[in-house]
Amino acid sequence: MVALLLFMFATVVALILFDKYEEEHEMQTQNSRPFTEEPRAERDYSTCSIFTVLGFTREEVRSFTAFRDHFRSYAEVTGAMRRAGLDRMRLIVGIDFSGSNEWQGRRTFKG
């Protein structure tokens, strides 16, 4: 008899909790933003990306590809990094000027 009462009590509690979940889920879907709104990652891209400073759109850099840079000196590179805000990030950049790297780049990227 006790087992039957506990089973009935547990069933009622489960139904109440399910009803509460359904209400919250319905309210959440009503308050959610539409899919046409620009996601946060897309919005923030233009404010914090070095590619923006270089003049590339997000679609152009979705996957890594070689691109011709617009720099003629190391000072221009550091200037672009400063404009992108990378000087405040304690970022260390290494540039490989070795002959094998240049040869591999010409062979791989045809440039």
Automatic annotation (TrEMBL):
InterPro entries: E3_ligase/Copine_domain (IPR052079). GO terms for cellular component: nucleus. One of its GO terms (biological process) is protein ubiquitination. One of its GO terms (molecular function) is ubiquitin-protein transferase activity. This is E3 ubiquitin-protein ligase RGLG2.
